[in-house]
Amino acid sequence: MVPHICLPVGVSSRLLTKSASEGSTYGKEYDSPLRSLRPCWTAFLNSLRATLLPLVPTCLDSSHESSDNTALMTAPLADPPPRSWPEVVGLIPAAGQAKRLQPFPCSKELFPVGFTKDPKTGMPRPKVASQYLLEKFKAAGVSKTFIVIREGKWDIPNYFQEGIGVGMSLAYLVIPGSLGPPDTLDRAYSFVSKYRVAFGFPDILFGPPDAYRYLIEQQERTAADVVLGLHRIEDPRIWDMVDCDNEGWVRGIEMKPASTTLTFGWCFAVWTPVFSEFLHRFLHADETKQSMGVLANTSNDPGGDLAVGVVFQEALKVGLRIQSVKFPHDRYLDIGTPDNLVKAVRQQTAE
Question: For the whole model, what pTM was predicted?
Answer without folding.
Answer: 0.78
